[in-house]
Hints:
It is a single chain. The chain is α+β, with helices and mostly antiparallel strands. It has helices spanning 10-21, 54-66, 87-90; strands at 6-9, 29-35, 38-44, 47-48, 51-52, 70-78, 99-104, 112-118, 124-127, 129-132. 22% of the residues lie in helices and 39% in strands. A 6-stranded mixed sheet has the order 3-2-6-7-8-9, sandwiched between helices. Strand 8 and strand 9 form a beta hairpin. The longest helix is centred in the middle third of the chain and has 13 residues, at 54-66. It is globular and about 35 Å long.
Amino acid sequence: MTEQPIQLPRHLVNQILHLAQLSPDHDIAGLVGAKDGLARSCHLVKRTGSTLDPRERDQALKAIRSQGETLMAVLHSHPAAPAEPLASDLHCRDFPEALRLIISLNTKGVLELRGFRIDENLAVREIALLLTE
């Protein structure tokens, strides 16, 4: 079964790109909240190795829930690598059911944002992203 494309509002994609550009030499990570299946918010969270900082992760989840949202995706950037899962990304088990959004800064002025699902067998499946107004 093919999963429907994930809808991402343009303003949120622009916010994510801006956050990644503010940290061109270091990766960023965060959680994306959604309401009614549409991504609505992004909350930055520090990473400790390949996992999210537990305290900041819990604060981000609390903020998502307080806005009436649910967790949609785990976001992180690759400052110097393509927007695809690296070996270290495969072993990040924070919210394994969540979509993985990866943004690459390894491009010249072009946003590269891709979505993936990683199953329990570490199989990677790309999910189409649909930019909406």
